[in-house]
User: Fold these one by one.
Assistant:
Number 1:
Amino acid sequence: MNIGMIPTRYATALLSYAAENKQDEQIYEMAKIIVRNFAEQPKLRAALESPVLNFDIKKKLMLTAAGSISDMVFENFIQLLLTNKRETFLHFIMLKYIDLYRVNNNIYSGKLITASNIDALTEKKLISVIESQKKGILEIHKSVDPELIGGFILEVDNTRWDASIKRQLQTIKNELAIY
Amino acid sequence: MSETIKVSEVSEILRMQLVGIDTSVQFDEVGTVLQVSDGVARIYGLNRAEANELLEFENGMKAIVMNLEEDNVGAVLLGPSSSIKEGFTVKRTKRVASIKVGEGLLGRVINPLGEPIDGKGAVTGEKLEMPLERKAPGVIFRQPVNEPLQTGLKAIDAMIPIGRGQRELIIGDRQTGKTSIAIDTIINQRANFEAGNPVYCIYVAIGQKGSTVASIVNKLEEHGAMAYTVIVAANASDPAALQYYAPFAGAAIGELFRDTGRHALVVYDDLSKQAVAYREVSLILRRPSGREAYPGDIFYLHSRLLERAAKINAQQEVAEKMNDLPASLVGRVKGGGSLTALPVIETQAGDVSAYIPTNVISITDGQIFLDTDLFNQGNRPAVNVGISVSRVGGNAQIKPMKKVAGTLKMDQAQFRELEAFTKFGGDMDPVTAMTIDKGQKNSRLLVQPLNNPMSVEKQVAVLYCGTKGLLKDVALDKVDDFQTNFLEMLELKYKVEVLDVIKSGTINDVVTDIIEKVASEVVKGL
């Protein structure tokens, strides 16, 4: 039950410390790298949870997961995590840090996934839909996923507008599921 | 994949289904799976998810929100963990977990999600959406239990009678006949079904072997009981979340009948396994653990489930205003219905003072305690009458049974006390000897073969013979023969004068005279 409270406290402390040292933006970028690495390398979590690996190995692992960028604030933070034996919460802490940083700096994230490459005009039109939802700095992540077959997916923070052919076919499949 | 064409694949039916599908674009609130293991997924995002809300993964699998934390949502998966990966998108459905219930479920075996698992195709007929979690009817929407639910077992109907709307716990060690009592009760409802006043039965199998469930289905089919029975199965190989929700699915099905003026019986076999499944889910969600590692709300788990068994007020205008009525039932409510619950709890080494058994004993309106020693001695059903009780009591018995079996419990209690002394040997006075003899013969009368429930009128007739000492000249090993011959003769010659009269709720001197006459004839014949 404490999984929510612990990362929030560490993330708040990290943001405050990083802001004092004017490193909050750098830590933000490192946090995004760490989150991406956790998604791409499921064994990273298992390694951090392992009681067999020692302090130094886990420290090196976390610094590597952050992109091997040398940063005193982040290194101190890792040291604190390991001392308090909270390294298993790193993923949640980084996610929370990203949330807190975005709120502080009025940043919101958007995602545009299309089935194939689209022209600049269409892309601009779709992005303007996202920009019309909120005021602030938009961080847009664009990607192409042929598995959508057709259409697109627009995401603004945690709201998704899925206009892909894949979703429609999945809906039909779920409805027609024969037992 | 099967290549056989199914009935539901007729083009016209497919076309109608396709028309009904909504593929228009909607805004969904989504989250991302961060971690999945042991039937629980931690999801990032979904800031506005609500407790007990149903979530849907991109592959169609469902989950239910159980933990709302600051930066993630913990949800239990209603399917295998292996089909969900980190990074999967999950969206809110904005509705609570529910099951589609209808008359088409009768005769079917389903899982807690309402999906048939008996290979007989989709469930047909009109279906209403009933929530798995629902508040129990309030005090003013209930009325006292006053109608018997006959189990067909002499030991129970005579001394521990169950009424419609009651919760009666069946508790005992492994292999003492707990499930058999429940199955015999279901089989005994066949007469009501044939007479047009069915008691619909729901058997919820929690954490059992698939082979056990299959043999129960076979048994019910052999006795023609599946026509009015639904089986909800969450087997041992199913995720803990399904085993946790299975009893709620059973309760939701029973509530459809209860709230539409009909009678239903739900058997939860067994709640010990549901408690274990809930403990597993709670520990994985890192909820604080209490006694025996169960979560702190384990009592609430069973109390809110069992409170849904009730006898609804017969007044229509009162019943219509029932609290927490699902949208699907508005306009369909009828008063006078009931939902009777027979929860089953398995004890270890006869310890009824353990945590879960004491919890459920304090919730229910009585318990039927099954004793291993009695079972091994051949007294089956192995009901320990001394510590079994029904808090509804005589209100759940027809008048003839109340009259005949009124002293039976006390007589048996006296017999058991005196029986202990006979083991010391020595002389006995005639009164003691008679009490012991009568007690032994009554105990023999109460023995009943498996899957052979007896109608209440026959029970009354047989127990009259026992309690009035008509068996005093019958040898102990001839009691079974006496019972068989006695009932045969009554059935052949005095069905209208005796059995039908008792069935109508009357017992008078004419009836008792005939019973005594038949009994003495049978005794002479032995």
Number 2:
Amino acid sequence: MIRVCTALAVLAVLGGCAAGYPPPQPGPQVPGASPPPAPPPVVVEQSEAQPEPRPQAAPATPPPPAANHDAPTLALLQQSRRSADGGDLKGAIGYVERAIRLNPRDAELWLQLARLQLASSQPARAEQTAQKAVSLADRQRELEREGWLLVADAREAQGDAAGAARIRAQWRTYRG
Amino acid sequence: MLGTLASVAVAGYLFYLDRTITTAFEGRRWTEPAVIYAQPLELYPGAPQSLADVTRELDRLGYRQRADVQAPGTYKRTGSRLDVHLRAFHFMESRRQSQRIELAFAGSTISDVRDGSGRPVPLVRLDPLTIGSFFPSHGEDRMVLQPDQIPPLLREALKAVEDQNFDRHVGFDPMGIIRALWVNVRAGEIQQGGSTLTQQLVKSYYLDNRRTFERKLREVAMAVILEARFDKQDILDAYINEIYLGQDGARAVHGFGLGAQYYFNQPLTELDVHEIATLIAVIRGPSYYNPYKYPDRALARRDLVLDKMLESGLIDEAAHQQGRSQPLDLVAGDRSGGAYHPAFMDLVRAELASAYQDSQLTGNGLRIFTTLRPSMQDAVDQALSETLSRLERGRDLKEGLLEGAAVVTATQTGEVLAVAGGRTAGFHGFNRALNARRPIGSLIKPVIYLTALEQGYHLASIVDDAPVRLEEHGRTWTPRNFDNKVHGPVPLVRALGDSLNLASVHLGLALGVDRVADRLTALTGRAPGNRFPSLLLGAEPMSPLQVASLYGVFASGGFYAQPQSVIAVLDETGAPLTRPPLAVERRMSSEAAEALGYAMASVMRHGTGTSSRFARAGTAGKTGTSDDYRDSWFAGYDDAHLAVVWVGADDNTPTGLTGATGAMRVWDDIMMRVGATPLHLPQRDDMRTIEYATGLLAHDGCADVVTVPLPADVALQSKPGCGINLRSITDRLRSWLGTSNDN
């Protein structure tokens, strides 16, 4: 279990960078970069899935932020992460989409979808998806902030460095 | 010389026959059709599914209720628990083995899901409903079975009944013909045919029942060629996948796989002996022995097949007796397991054609996963057909005058859950949901009000509901309100809620028709053909699907999502071809979207939607009626589903129905069947309560008030005699302070 946690923490930090996050700021910690509590082992379906892929050195996406998801959502996010770690981003997106079908108002799922889209080099789509997450955040500032920071990353990835900087400046002052 | 020429001609002809029949055989044998699946039902603790819901879905899938659940495709009910033996299925992500699960229910939700050994399972799916399959190459439908999916009993029984010498003959069996003649003379009726299975197979490749000597010779020659080229088992399996077994409307039922689904709604491997016997019985004459039309004939011939099985030692006496004692056990009604949804399939086909290249779609054995939710489709089909009949009876309209169409989408994703193209479900005719473009009437109005909100108006802004005279195409035109009255100055929220034509025209003209038209274009990606003032009253034809894409933006808080029916297309190895992404795009500011959301909810609580049974259940929507009551529209949504309904007559005769008395009744009926989830309207700091009729500041104690977001700098007059009371002010102050602390 400890090994799993360590691995997840490493993946989280690496993933954060890979997804184009700004370098960590002094001050408040970026919530998305903190290691999530390892969820309990769960089985979605007995399947003949391919052997568990080994985590790669540079994973494509950060794990989802820690949250109070219900068991089915958690199971799907876990499978999504496994696919992403194995380099199968399309598959990872598929699992998150399935989770969204079950909980279409869950802003964190849309955030995770945006992260995966960004990691799949679809920054324009990721920007819109992150905005969707913000609109569903229902004024929860932490979620809004994460959504906007993702919007900033997506803008930067589209060459709009000034726009990205503006958003980051606006949300950097926020202290949670 | 002549002899040589004749030999050359015969050799050439045989060569031609060989090429023809071999190509046909191999072409079919190795072609797997594309199969289209609905959304599978997700089972998890807390899922909003009652025991009845899950049982209904199992029945749809052809699961059988049994005393034990040893075999896949069976289930058992004990009190409020279900034991289900799930079938194996190759899902998008991976293959699932058949497995047992136990479900417990508490009221209308699933309370517990466990696997066969009693361990909790967080999430598991039923297998998805097959809603269609097609051969891109020749358009015919098959469910091609692999050799291991064919029950040995079927192969042996086919030989026993149709072709006893199959294992020995060379494609043609003179002894068989003599035997058949003898049997038929003795019985005084045709009980046996003289054609071998191979000849029957050849015949079915070239559906032509004309009996000429030349054709018969050709058939025999081709059968002999097939036998020379391929082995017996391949020929028999091809026969099992090819033979004609009946007619489902315009769709020919070929092969035992599809036959098992059509007649019994089961996979072939799960059929009982008497059901296999029925399918074999039908081969002799699918119309003459049609089990739906002539059950007695079919039953008598089935028993004959069972007798043959016993005579040939394929079944024992007990199984024979058991089989003969069974009824035909057909799926109720002459329908293909209730899984034929042609209107939805049209959408799938259109989407595939636009999103994929032809070369991708002609691939072998494609598996297409779609967003169709069978329970929703059933609800929509029933609601439409029953409500239209009820409306005709209640209003003394000619029976069959009314037609209708409906599209239901998931609000946040835009995924299409159900499509009804007409009032007769399962009838593949004109698809009104996709192809009927009718003037949308007042369904256009939210676009005007959205434009206004973005131009500095707010929901309490006053617009003048006063007479107006318009020039269009050289003609003068004076629109009227529905109630023929003039209401004077009214707030925006009421002008939309009561669907006031004069106020809307004044507002639209003040904003500019072009601006409204541009806004409509930006919302849906489709420019209106009409850029004249009549656009403001909805003189713009749209299909229900196009309306769903427009209202999807309102229902999702301002995000456009293309109504989408395909989740993924996998090739025969299970690898996804490109996958249409779940893509959303902001098309209006969150402030405007939220304000408009409150206004659309007011339509139901205060305006033209108040006669809905769901007016006070947290829903939003808009009614629409075109000139002279030719089109009745309703687009309504709750938190989960957006449903757009059109009702009218195909020949455009007026029906006397408004949006509220026609289409909204259908919408109500749909909601009754699927249940409403109250809208989640975001709580904002700038909410104020105003009188609906006047827009004056009021409080909850006044009659007919509405609480809406208004910009903080807007000063409103208070309603005299029903002013702000102290309690309301302190409450507001407290909540304001509370919110501030959170920040």
